[in-house]
Amino acid sequence: MALALGALIALALAVSFPFVSFSVSGIGNRIELTQTATSLIDFDQSLVAITVLLTIAVLPAVYLVAVVWLQFGLLRQAPLPASRSIARSLSHLHPWMMADVFIVGALVSLIKIAGMAEIELGISFWAFCAFALLLLFTTQSLDADWLWFSLAGEPLAPPGTRTGEPASRQGLAGCATCGLVNRLDDHGHCRCRRCGENLHARLPHSLQRTWALLAAAAVMYLPANLYPIMTTTSLGRATPSTIIGGVVELIQMGSWPVAIVIFVASVIVPVGKLVALSWLCLMAKRSDELKAATRTRLYRLTEFIGRWSMVDVFVVAMLVALIRAGALLSITPGPAALAFASVVVSTMLAAMTFDPRLLWDTPPAEATRTAQGRPR
Ligand SMILES: [Zn+2]
To answer: 40-59: per-residue pLDDT in tens?
Structure first.
């Protein structure tokens, strides 16, 4: 409760004061946090603008208000209305909050322009850092087990549940949101008794959906790299730069650490995710228990690192808003920004639609052999 309230106050401060200002030869510009998104609309990049605004401010704010609502009810020992639906949506909001990624993006963009112009950090910048930190602490200190226990108690497992035997063979499924074991109906589907989440023995058409999203991401990855992600106009001369071009530029400037950050976030992570998820989809059908643990770890890693690729999109958002001194020095977004943002979003969705339980399904031939009692 304290952390969530603190984070909300920090966010309120972050949106009401100047964020960063820059000046070059007497001409300057000062921006507020929300302008990092709204400036993109001026350049017909409204989809990217909406993504930026949602991930850095709107969704975190919704999350924090939800946490305060829940905790207020729990502290009074009488949960407020809609507590269960709100608690259920927290876990779905979590991966889409990217305040910490935005800070990395903001720092990278400041380093990029440090040589060209004078930069001054506003109160809002520090408030936003505090907000990102408090948001991180809030998500870390929220205990889902305790939350669901306090909201709805701990119902017993369905009668006849046997331990040490796979749930799918017993017609059971664990809830990914609250952890409760539920009995599925004849179609392998039910709603969780405690939180109301939709449960399936295995996510329907998991592999097909993941393949489709991966294909979409692979297609979008081409324009994301071939088109310029932004165009810098300096003294009337326009120089477009692609993602790789930006990395090369940083190396030429001597900023090795930043170049590595951008290269890892914009090239290694998205390509690695595409390769890793495709491999998991291919292997899901012929996974055995020995390899399943390693493959599950690989899946968790791809799920965890996915959001960090947004760094480059945030760099563009920040620079486009800040660097507006006409022909003297200005930066405009390129078509690759939208393409790259959609690569990040579709690979994140692909990781969500992939059902890691498929990795633990022993092949049918093997399963019948064990059921008949013969040793493997
Ligand atoms: Zn549940």
So the answer is: 999 989 999 999 999 999 99
